[in-house]
Amino acid sequence: xxxxxxxAIGGNALVKxxxxxxxxxxxxxxxxxxxxxxxxxxxxxxVVVTHGNGxxxxxxxxxxxxxxxxxxxxxxxLVNCVADTQGxxxxxxxxxxxxxxxxxxxxxxxxxxxxxxxxxxDDPNFENPTKPVGSFxxxxxxxxxxxxxxxxxxIEDSGRGYRxxxxxxxxxxxxxKDAIKLLIDSDFVVIAVGGGGxxxxxxxxxxxxxxxxxxxxxxxxxxxAEQIDAxxxxxxxxxxxxxxxxxxxxxxxxxxxxxxxxxxxxxxxxFPAGSMLPKIEASLSFLEKNGKxxxxxxxxxxxxxxxxxAGTHIIKEKVAVL
Length: 322
Ligand SMILES: Nc1ncnc2c1ncn2[C@@H]1O[C@H](COP(=O)(O)OP(=O)(O)O)[C@@H](O)[C@H]1O
Ligand SMILES: NC(=O)OP(=O)(O)O
Prior knowledge:
This protein is α/β, with parallel strands linked by helices. It is built from 9 helices and 17 strands. The strands form 4 sheets. The protein has an 8-stranded mixed beta sheet with strand order 3-9-2-1-12-16-17-15, with helices on both faces. Helix 2 packs across helix 3. It is globular. The N and C termini lie far apart (about 40 Å). One of its GO terms (biological process) is L-arginine deiminase pathway.
């Protein structure tokens, strides 16, 4: 199949105004990101794109709840909100990328695969919601909302405010992986596992059923990378490099770290749950299977990062960071 690179786009990277962006604003953010991915495709990389949906799925869920409260319209189950964001964001990436290739005179085809991702109904994460979705709130706002909706849960998200959380089971199989592989083999740029994939459970006789949750897109991306034998996993997010002591006066950006060093920083709690921790865990899982290298960076640094001139590189060999 040739060397495949998977590039994950963070859902937060597509949102600037905490829930007040228009669809056009989001499309413009997608267009900015796509330019950097098109550079990679133009340079000859076989690219698969995945994306998050944390903010967007929370907005969709809230729209549905408000329509239910105000107009009595049937609420949309969370799993369908995920499917809606996968289609909506996938459409924007697919169109922006098609247009970018056309602008450059590149003869490249793009396709988005509606992707179901299998989870276990016994996953303990169903009992303990951890995935932040939707807007950021102040502590006071979140407490007021908890009084109005006693079943809602909130967490503090990396110093950025409080967010509602929903269950996030671990992905165990990418149902459409064979279709994704076929498209890669046919030289398509493929967009897949959007929003972490649509969570489904396997029933008798190889049938599936949706289940309400939001799968972490970093874990889903890592599993897809493993199942299609990708060499490189690139996770793009809001920062150019992963840091230790993030947000503190002694913050330090990391450019190259080994698996052992990464584990040590993880044990020292440098990576918060719900933001940087899943990216690190997904990276380690990929490298400990058959993955060759992982890069964590922001979209604008992609071109330099693949030349090892930017980003945080997690590698299998031992390196000393200090
Ligand atoms: N140790 C860290 N190093 C760098 N960024 C961190 C760290 N810990 C938390 N962050 C924050 O986490 C963000 C990435 O998480 P998040 O925005 O939830 O991901 P996504 O881009 O996938 O939506 C970064 O943009 C940064 O603000
Ligand atoms: N599903 C998911 O992990 O989305 P974000 O990357 O936007 O949080």
